[in-house]
């Protein structure tokens, strides 16, 4: 039996996992260090993601996607994250942009935007603002009816894949007096008049992604509205429930990559005439990480399977995101300690993983937000049971 538990994937998921393994070895792993060093988007990898079907893996077949399960999708993200967290983050951002349309888009919107996504033209999820991250109801961007459409004004920030996307699902306040119940979502085209991406964040990690600002003073037609008026915050939260499972997969893949780097180093590195893994000070942290990765993997795949069965994943998604991201933190930290000075200096995969990991405890809801979600769930369960 392997030290880290291996999920028993069905034929579909196994096929896509194998495709991801081949693509990652050939295209993602060799580019990872260069993308990080140059903070460069992997444009040359996108055609391979499209041709392999991985770009549209979770999209329905009628829109050019593969119609794969979430279990298959997380197995792909996990595998790619082991080699390149940036490319895995791009796949996660694809999903995040697609889900509002999958959940609430019109047939016409799905046909245009989901079909474009399956061919590599990305849509980004534009919810956060500079002063409205964990509290999206505090957003300042507005939508006001004008003529036959809506005038959208304001800025959206921290947009994953934002600089590389053509389209955006932008969340704005259409009824400022209603707070969280006055938010509506609209499709926005980056090439439309009054739309601009005017900032790309200089990030600590996942530097192969483009995280952007989106500035809006644009008129969109009524047909651009996604879902019901004033109900978009609920739509965003439903999207994030799934997004958190995807980030859990990214976290787990990074944790496995860090563990394997640490384990290989611990076996090959000699001090005082023996491999350093023969010292309890090295072996015990690695044993802990292997156990934690196994537990995280069990939780991740249980969450994905729950979604595939149509279950509510708010609680288990929060648990998976919280636990997997913090296990990734532990794995990256142990790997850095095992590699010591060699791991601390560039170019080192361990050094890159150490930086890439940190965002996993922040985006798609911070660890504190996950604990808040779970605390409310605990209270609700106790009150219901009396």
From TrEMBL:
<comment type="similarity">
    <text>Belongs to the acyl-CoA dehydrogenase family.</text>
</comment>
<dbReference type="Pfam" id="PF02771">
    <property type="entry name" value="Acyl-CoA_dh_N"/>
</dbReference>
<dbReference type="InterPro" id="IPR009075">
    <property type="entry name" value="AcylCo_DH/oxidase_C"/>
</dbReference>
<dbReference type="InterPro" id="IPR006089">
    <property type="entry name" value="Acyl-CoA_DH_CS"/>
</dbReference>
<dbReference type="InterPro" id="IPR013786">
    <property type="entry name" value="AcylCoA_DH/ox_N"/>
</dbReference>
<feature type="domain" description="Acyl-CoA dehydrogenase/oxidase C-terminal">
    <location>
        <begin position="233"/>
        <end position="378"/>
    </location>
</feature>
<dbReference type="Pfam" id="PF02770">
    <property type="entry name" value="Acyl-CoA_dh_M"/>
</dbReference>
<keyword id="KW-0285">Flavoprotein</keyword>
<keyword id="KW-0560">Oxidoreductase</keyword>
<dbReference type="InterPro" id="IPR037069">
    <property type="entry name" value="AcylCoA_DH/ox_N_sf"/>
</dbReference>
<feature type="domain" description="Acyl-CoA oxidase/dehydrogenase middle">
    <location>
        <begin position="124"/>
        <end position="217"/>
    </location>
</feature>
<dbReference type="InterPro" id="IPR009100">
    <property type="entry name" value="AcylCoA_DH/oxidase_NM_dom_sf"/>
</dbReference>
<dbReference type="InterPro" id="IPR046373">
    <property type="entry name" value="Acyl-CoA_Oxase/DH_mid-dom_sf"/>
</dbReference>
<keyword id="KW-0274">FAD</keyword>
<dbReference type="InterPro" id="IPR006091">
    <property type="entry name" value="Acyl-CoA_Oxase/DH_mid-dom"/>
</dbReference>
<dbReference type="InterPro" id="IPR036250">
    <property type="entry name" value="AcylCo_DH-like_C"/>
</dbReference>
<feature type="domain" description="Acyl-CoA dehydrogenase/oxidase N-terminal">
    <location>
        <begin position="12"/>
        <end position="120"/>
    </location>
</feature>
<protein>
    <submittedName>
        <fullName>Acyl-CoA dehydrogenase family protein</fullName>
    </submittedName>
</protein>
<dbReference type="Pfam" id="PF00441">
    <property type="entry name" value="Acyl-CoA_dh_1"/>
</dbReference>
């Amino acid at each position: 039996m392997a030290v880290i538990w291996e999920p028993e994937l069905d034929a579909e998921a196994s096929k896509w996992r194998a495709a991801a393994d081949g693509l990652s070895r050939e295209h993602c792993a060799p580019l990872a260090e260069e993308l990080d060093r140059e903070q460069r988007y992997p444009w040359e990898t996108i055609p391979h993601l499209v041709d392999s079907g991985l770009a549209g893996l979770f999209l329905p077949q009628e829109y050019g996607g593969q119609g794969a399960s979430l279990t298959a999708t997380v197995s792909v993200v996990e595998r790619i994250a082991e080699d390149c967290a940036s490319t895995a983050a791009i796949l996660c951002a694809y999903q995040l942009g697609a889900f509002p349309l999958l959940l609430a888009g019109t047939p016409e919107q799905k046909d245009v935007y989901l079909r474009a996504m399956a061919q590599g033209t990305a849509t980004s999820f534009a919810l956060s603002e500079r002063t409205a991250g964990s509290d999206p109801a505090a957003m300042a961007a507005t939508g006001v009816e004008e003529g036959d459409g809506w005038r959208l004004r304001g800025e959206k920030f921290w947009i994953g894949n934002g600089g590389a996307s053509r389209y955006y699902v932008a969340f704005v306040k259409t009824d400022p007096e209603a707070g969280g119940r006055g938010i509506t979502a609209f499709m926005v085209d980056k090439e439309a008049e009054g739309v601009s991406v005017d900032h790309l964040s200089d990030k600590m990690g996942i530097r192969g992604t483009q995280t952007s600002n989106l500035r809006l003073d644009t008129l969109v037609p009524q047909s651009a509205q996604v879902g019901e008026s004033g109900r978009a915050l609920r739509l965003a939260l439903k999207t994030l429930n799934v997004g958190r499972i995807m980030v859990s997969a990214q976290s787990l893949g990074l944790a496995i990559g860090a563990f394997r780097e640490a384990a290989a180093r611990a076996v090959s590195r000699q001090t005082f005439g023996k491999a350093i893994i023969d010292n309890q000070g090295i072996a015990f942290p690695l044993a802990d990480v292997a156990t934690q990765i196994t537990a995280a993997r069990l939780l991740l795949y249980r969450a994905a399977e729950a979604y595939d069965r149509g279950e509510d994943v708010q609680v288990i998604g929060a648990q998976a995101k919280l636990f997997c991201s913090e296990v990734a933190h532990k794995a990256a930290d142990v790997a850095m300690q095992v590699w010591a000075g060699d791991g601390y200096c560039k170019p080192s995969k361990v050094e890159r993983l150490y930086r890439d990991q940190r965002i996993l405890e922040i985006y798609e809801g911070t660890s504190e937000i996950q604990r808040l979600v779970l605390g409310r769930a605990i209270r609700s369960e106790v009150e219901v049971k009396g």
